[in-house]
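Hey, why these numbers?
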Amino acid sequence: MSGWIYLAITIASTVIAQIAFKRHYITKRYLDLMVAIGLFCLAVPFTFLAAHQMGIGRVYISTALSYVLTPIAARFAFGEYLGLRQWGALTLIVAGVIVYNV
């Protein structure tokens, strides 16, 4: 598999795990906690595989996208508000990842 696919799995599992963890905090459902822990554990080997193929610098910088995707996912999952400053910060993070990877 491509390093980019490993990286995508890492980022997706991290984002979904963070959403599941917050959902557990809100609902106290044990299943949400188990999903969060499982996905956090899943992210570790895929991060290693991505770093092995792409280099740690590129993977480390690219995982910053989880800081972009998590608030967006929380907006849809929990109705959280994202103001203009937050959108500006998310845009800067994406721009930084793009600049580093180009």
